[in-house]
Amino acid sequence: MPQNADNILDHENLFRQPEYVELFENKKRDFEFGHPVDKVKEIVEWTKTKDYQEKNFARDSLTVNPAKACQPLGAVFVANGFARTLSFVHGSQGCVAYYRSHFSRHFKEPTSCVSSSMTEDAAVFGGLNNMVDGLANTHSLYKPDMIAVSTTCMAEVIGDDLNAFIKTAKEKGSVPMDYDVPFAHTPAFVGSHITGYDNALLGILKHFWDGKADTAPKLERVPNESINFIGGFDGFVVGNMPEIRRIFKTMGIEHTLLCDPSDNWNTPTDGTYRMYDGGTTKQQVAEALNAKATIVFQQFSAEKTAKLIAEHGQEVVALNHPMGVAGTDQFLMALSRISGKPIPAELELERGRLVDAIADSQAHLHGKKYALYGDPDLMLGLTQFLLELGAEPTHVLSTNGDDKWAAKVQALFDASPFGKNCKVYPKRDLWHMRSLLFTEPVDFLIGNTYGKYLERDTGTPLIRLVFPIFDRHHYHRMPIWGYEGAMRVLVMLLDEFFESLDANTIIPGKTDYSYDIIR
Amino acid sequence: MSLTMEETKARNKELIEEVLKAYPEKTAKKRAKHLNAFEEGKTDCNVKSNIKSVPGVMTIRGCAYAGSKGVVWGPIKDMIHISHGPVGCGQYSWAARRNYYIGTTGIDTFVTMQFTSDFQEKDIVFGGDKKLEKIIDEIQVLFPLNKGISVQSECPIGLIGDDIEAVSKKKAKEYVGKTIVPVRCEGFRGVSQSLGHHLANDAIRDWVFDKMDPEKNKFEGSPYDVAIIGDYNIGGDAWSSRILLEEMGLRVIAQWSGDGSIAELENTPKAKLNVLHCYRSMNYISRHMEEKYGVPWVEYNFFGPSKIAASLREIASHFDDKIKEGAERVIAKYQALTDAVIAKYRPRLEGKTVMLFVGGLRPRHVIGAYEDLGMNVVGTGYEFGHNDDYQRTTHYVKDGTLIYDDVTGFEFEKFVEKIQPDLVGSGIKEKYVFQKMGVPFRQMHSWDYSGPYHGYDGFGIFARDMDMAINSPVWSLTKAPWKKAA
Fold first, then answer.
1. Of A277, A377, B332, B417, which has the maximum CB count within 10 A?
2. Is the pLDDT of residue A1 over 80?
3. Is A14–B242 a contact, with Cβ atoms under 8 angstroms apart?
């Protein structure tokens, strides 16, 4: 009997006990009618070949293990970044259950979001009644300051018109006439979660700046010295936003973080559940129109939003997730130029300490090959940082990155001697990456939790720096932006290097001559 | 502190009144029908169920796709399940349900992979059938050892008029020996995951049973052949169940669907008895096999030693003395283990109260396991149970238990706030809400990444997990010491 009250075996050990091993063998032999072991082995080996890779890269219809999600996820992220705002997704309700679970698994926090729960009758007649009842229920039950509406693909396919629906709902008294219900159409079959981030943020800015869907006068821009900051879709937002706030404060710059979910996804356990915490207020959104400039930290996450802001007369500085030394330099110099304020000694000291740490450790990372995948801007930032460390970002892949993005990555490669043998892969998935890791192996993989399947299959150690991260805890609490964030990323890269080296030299009497105590 | 039965009932009635006040009138009327305090002697829980969720209230429910791909089809390991439509549905449900299996992933096994047709605007405008054909071709090239394909429809498929049945038929002819199954589980169908279970069951009936080759995968039958139906092997549940059935002398010829294979599905009509764990998600196919193939079925419950023993005897009653003796032998064999587990954990858990909200089975099925540990379930409800589930629930719950069907985020929060149970068992969306409130919590869908909880081996883990949740020192830290005095 495997189980014992004094030593309860968990699944990973329970099922290794002989009773279970025998059970598995019998089941397989007698009932599964699977393929012969040799055949399975043969295919395993074949999937590692160039021939397989060619066939794999030839597919144009099937997607296997993509590194992207759908638009409304980004919209829910955005809504969560505004004060006392409830995300309302118009369409099928199952989608909302998925967004909430997805974020909760990553942040280990509650994620509030409601659905208009459309079903078959709504598919036929449209979802107007769902919107009317839904807004009324949400408003009276959860008392938000604002309800941010987005759509699932169901509502998009049947062509529901959010602007008209919300107007009708207001006329029917679901919410007061002057109640703020910004909206965004977020079809899941266009773009990805970063497109949804863009559309949702655009919807909110348009609502407050451009006359609240023709129910209020458009705001007049009265320029001031403030700077807006838009972070883009970011799995490390809980750690990053406080770091950005600190940098602005240190530089003495008036600022507005447009969409800041870093408090909402970081509430204490003290006996009280806070459904809403922190976030950008409505007043801040309105006043953000007057800012001197807006920094868009992730260009591909806010393309339309950036355009709208520029059209309102602000300077827009669009960055590509700058990180590391030069990346952070670029960000700070942009802030300094716009604000006319010098970069303070305090930040310069942080920079010096980061460079110090890199100098101490660079030998371990120099020439190491990395494969990385994720959102387009994050890939640009990581590529830049890896090159700066003397590492080689050999395979840079993005499922939601297009050719325009690929050209930017290529430009980074071209600007560095370490980029010579590196290649960029737009619109590819993790099954493509699997082939690459077999045919052109690298030392390390940078990705999200799903990368662990690649680690298992190809033996490439995984560093988790990409959303979502479900199987490690609390990474999102630490920043990866700014000099402080770069320090954190540096340590993660080094940790994985040292862990791998130790694991590779740990056999007593065989390989442990290299199991060094000082590295 | 503890209330009398009458006080409990009055408190629960009051609580229901109170939460209903927060709704607009029309919604309050609707929600009132889903909430009740159970009265002993009644044959159901007197709540409405399996009807549409109210918009805008934060229902915990999912959709038909989740019920079909996520629950029924997804775990079938040697088939490839295409999430057909936009990328999201497959992405969010990717490997999240912990359906354990043995196999070489990506080669002859595909459970923890996300195959999607990643619909783009042009697929919506021009239809996705051509793309689906191409996808099936590409699968044959890159994953030649697949034993079949299921097409799991996402919302747009049914709205744009795609004919996935025609594509499936055509491709099944082209790829002889591969089972290809279209499933119309678009998320807008029905009111919850539940219709997805039903549609998935029907698809097995129509596209597996009705099309299978009886000469394929033959084996010698035995008088003791049974199939496990409705166990998704979460954290290995089906394995810690199977071992008991085999130890009592039965032969398990199939697992539906955790760690299951298409050959097992096809051979199930040869079983002498289908043993059904999750009634809600697989009663349909069990009834069908009874009608068409004459295979009787029996429900069982492998949570906690009391229910396990009763279930082993119930299952054995369908067989001869050899099996009946086998059941007694198994019960006796594990007696020492269960005694030791109870001796260790019951003193730490005695009298603790629990509130549950899970899917379609566990809101009743796990109650016995808690009671074996001396704990009381004081509130329970189903995400997607039907009236027959609430009828079955009456055999488990005590007088006065608070019942809440398709509970809303608001209601659940208020109920827990007022009742202050020692433990809440529900899902990931609820977990952190209650932990913030200082209430211990266990996820009762995924076993909070633990498990198995089924069978005797699982019960030890269950008991240990409930103890570590409730008696964790962290709960004494939630109030800062300088605030405690106040």
1. A377
2. no
3. no
How many degrees, rounded to 5, is the angle at CA A390 between CA A386 and CA A396? 35
For residue A479, whether the previous peptide bond is cis, meaning omega lies within 30 degrees of 0, is no
With respect to residue B52, please indicate whether it lies within any of the assigned structural domains: no
User: What's the token pair of residue A509?
Assistant: 């009497």
- Which residues, in sequence order, are CB contacts of A415 under 8 Å at separation 6+? A387
Residue A405 CA to its chain's centroid (Å): 17
Cβ–Cβ under 8 Å, residues B120 and A125: no
pLDDT at res. B485: 62
**Nearest-CA neighbor of A446 among A377, A501, A492?**
A492
Domain of residue B177 covers 65-190+192-209
Q: Return d(Cα A499, Cα B303) in angstroms, integer.
A: 41
The tens digit of pLDDT for each residue in A59-86 reads: 999 999 999 999 999 999 999 999 999 9
Contact between A309 and A294 (Cβ < 8 Å)? yes
Q: Are residues B230 and B198 in the same domain?
A: no
Q: Please report the DSSP string for A268-301 in residue order.
A: --SS---S----B-HHHHHHGGG-SEEEESBGGG
- CATH number for the domain harbouring residue B92: 3.40.50.1980
- Are B101 and B159 found together in one domain? yes
**What average pLDDT does range B144-168 have in this prediction?**
98
Is A104 in Cβ contact with B432 (below 8 Å)? Answer: yes
Residues of A in contact with B334 (CB under 8 A): 1
> What is the per-residue pLDDT for A402?
98
Q: Are residues B200 and B70 in the same domain?
A: yes
Q: Could you tell me if B154 and B289 lie in one domain?
A: no
**Contacting residues of A for B452, CB less than 8 Å apart:** 11, 14
pTM: predicted TM-score of the whole model, two decimal places: 0.98
Q: Are B132 and B167 in contact (CB under 8 A)?
A: yes
Residue A111, classed as helix, strand or coil, is: coil
List, as one string, the DSSP characters of B221-253.
--TTEEEEEEE--BTTHHHHHHHHHHHTT-EEE
How many angstroms separate the CA of residue B139 from the nearest CA in chain A? Answer: 8
pLDDT digits (tens, 9 = 90+) for B284-340: 999 999 999 999 999 999 999 999 999 999 999 999 999 999 999 999 999 999 999
Residues B292 and B363 both lie in one domain:
no
Q: Report the alpha-carbon distance of residue B298 to residue B311 in Å, rounded.
A: 9
Q: Which residue out of A121, A190, A267, A273 would a mutagenesis test of the B interface target, given it has the greatest number of B Cβ atoms within 10 Å?
A: A273
Find residues 4-63 of chain A whose CB sits inside 8 Å of chain B: 4-6, 8-11, 14-15, 19-20, 23-24, 27-28, 30-35, 39-40, 43-44, 47, 52, 55-56, 59-63
Domain-terminating residue out of B302, B333, B364: B333
- Residues A184-219 pLDDT 10s: 999 999 999 999 999 999 999 999 999 999 999 999
Alpha-carbon span A466 to A66, nearest angstrom: 13
The ipTM value here is 0.98
| Residues B73 and B202 occupy one common structural domain | yes
Residue B350 within any structural domain of the chain: yes
| Chain A residues 295-354 with a CB less than 8 Å from chain B | none
Q: CB contact, 8 Å: B246 with chain A? A: yes
- Whether residues B149 and B90 fall in one domain: yes
A323 pLDDT higher than 90? yes
How far apart CA A249 and CA B270 sit, in angstroms, is: 73
- Which residue of chain A is at minimal alpha-carbon distance from B192? A94
Cβ-contact B45, B124 below 8 angstroms = no
Please give the Cα distance from B48 to B386 (Å, whole number). 8
Residues in CB range of B299: below 8 A, 6 or more apart: B276, B277, B279
Count structural domains, chain B. Answer: 3
B46, part of any domain = no
B251/B329 same-domain check: yes
**Length of chain B, in residues:** 486
